[in-house]
Amino acid sequence: MFQSRCAGCERVGPVLCRTCRFALAAPPAMPRVTDVIAAVPFAGRSRDVLLGFKYANRRQLSHHLAGLLVNRILASGVRPSEIDAVTWAPTSRRRRNRRGFDQAELVARRVAAQLGVPCRRLLERQGGVAQTGLDRATRLHGPVFRASPAASGQRVLVIDDVVTTGSTLRSAEAALRSAGARSVQRAAVATTPALVGGVDHHPSRHYPSRHRPSQHQPLRRQRPAPPRTVVQGPWAA
Ligand SMILES: [Zn+2]
pLDDT at position 237, please? Predict the structure, then answer.
């Protein structure tokens, strides 16, 4: 029989037990050295929770994770009145089909609702072949997105669930700006400790993960993809 377990500690009960809820709600300060607003470090208990969200189909966690991120967004000085649209960096179609949902979209929709700002699908993930005329960083890292013309003139908050290298959100920002977005803020539920200055602020980093190694594999595949391009596309102004 199916038994609900906590994504943070595997205790039988709710998807996130009281202990883990508190542990996640009181994360260490996350300096914004990368300009990505992040709620928690991708380490320790919060990493387990995020892996459960991503790979174990625990989509009920999105509400709680979005709440953490909203708190961090507001604490960082971003005002909802200064955001016209919340969007997300879409995962690949293959991954979305396998999981049945796009975890970044789930978080973005919840964040938008909690901020009282519209959530819009403004980005499309590009597959396809490499093209020339790219800067080196773009070629070496991350997926490539194409932004809708609806991004033009908008102040956009773009969301991802987990940031490892930062390349996905940088690429998303580049697409939004090339479509004419007036400003772009980047936010993620979690970032790797290396991204916050190379210092591990989280004492429970070595908290053992109970996820099977096979469940970690999709994460490694999220690492910088083969060279791709910024496609300006028919939408570009
Ligand atoms: Zn727990």
Answer: 32
